Amino acid sequence: MSQEAATSKSLRAKKVTLARLMRLATSGEHEMSSAKASFVRRHLMQHLAFALLWLSGLAAVGILLAVIGYVVVQGAQVIDWEFLTTPPAGGLASSDVGGMSTTVISTAYLVFWTIVIAGPLGVLAAIYLVEYAEEMEGSRGLIPALVGVVRFAVEILAGVPSIVFGLFGYALFVSARALGWSFSMRSAAVTGACLVLPVIIRASEEAIRCVPRSHREASLALGATQWQTVWKVVLPSAAPGVVTGIVLSVGRVVSETAVFFVTLGGTVRAPDHLFDLASPGRSMALHVYYLAMETRAFDKAMGTSAVLILIIILINLSINVISQRMTGRLGGA
Amino acid sequence: MEFTDVKLETRGYSLYYGDFQALRDVDIQIPRNRVTAVIGPSGCGKSTFLRTFNRMNDLISGVTVEGGVYIEGQDVFRMDPVELRHSVGMVFQRPNPFPKSIFDNVAYGPRAHGVRNRARLAESVERSLQAAALWAEVKDDLTKSALELSGGQQQRLCIARALAVEPDVILMDEPASALDPVATLKIEELIRELSKSYTIVIVTHNMQQAARVSDYTAFLMMDEEDRAGYLVEYGPTDRIFTNPEHEITERYITGRFG
To answer: Rounded to whole angstroms, how far apart are CA atoms A230 and A126?
Structure first.
């Protein structure tokens, strides 16, 4: 074994700290041997790259924490029981009076109806695309062509800015004389459903496609019909992914403003009850907008934002818990 | 080969994947309550041939067939595939239990066919697990996930699951190829036991296994030019292994190719 090889080998055995590298680079009476130089260079590079990655990660987390921290700290000053339980005062000078209670109620109703419409529709569409339409792929005819169009449309819709959905809803549901829905919970829920449909379809499609083919074959070979196979085997296996898509959609609805600005209206009154679909309302995110832009109650906008952030955090945590529960239950040891 | 008690039969049966011919002109009669092994080199269409009898090839797009396939004289292509699979069960190469409990795995078939009564389901599950020689090992934790079982146990569970539908025929596609020798031996014993009351067709790569478990052996081979699978010869396992008619059969079973 040559001397150089022996040196670098013994070096590798110990942990290469920055201090040791510096010592190595500066020590020695003669020129550094090429193996030694390469060793120092590579390990310096490693330290440098790692430091860069670490800093980037820190910066990203830092920015996010700063945003959340600022809003929560600012918001915390106005949040109390009264703020949460009194309706907004409305009008321009609602700096001293009023809370956010009705916007929470409107948001809850809105989420409920959006998911009731988009959830089943999206999951069924995903089942159709994967289980029934995929086997026709490559063949010619009206239905395979239609499937291609549907899949393309879903891709496109997922990338369309939300205000475009809003405009669509405004034109079709709010202002069209034929429906006469005006600004209302139903206009908002249907438009919101259009907005989250691609999210649900794509998440469900992905989850359904990941169910092993062998499970489907096992079920069919036992004489189950295709629908039984989908209902009893494929969907339960895909459930964590499907639920994740739905919960993501809930988050999307909670945080959306543009769509509901032009479909839900802005009244501070909440609909009378869950089935009061004809009334307008104001979601929490919209409330933040109105407070910040049209009143002087900036502190209350911060308060509402803080509550909004907490809700989003809870939604994201619930996604983790749900998918862990569901996969853990029968996933084996 | 002519049998008096034929369970499954193909006549002039050919299968195509698009333009590619995978099977050519297969004529075979498979007797009731016997084990028939299908052997041959990789890619000769053994599995495709096996999947003919429960029409699993229907699931692959672009498959077309010629000729006839019969179960007790009835044309399978005129039957409802769901009904056909009620009487023709299948065990796959890799154990594929559902991510459900042991009980729910075995009860899956009966439930799919409309059995709702708890007592009847429980009875069916016990009988099937008994028949698959798994009952003693799992009877105390039927609610455990099937995925917690060992590979060999999972495969016996899959056999139990197939038996619970009460088929007459069981198709086995290399059922032991993913298992260790001990588990393989258990499956082979089970096949011998089951052949008393079921017609079994087993595809295997393993010559010794074919010799150990089967009564009859069919040797499939692919055409050298277009790679379509065809039946070289078919007969009692003893004769195929000791005195094959074709030289190519002898070369294959003695391990000189394939």
So the answer is: 11
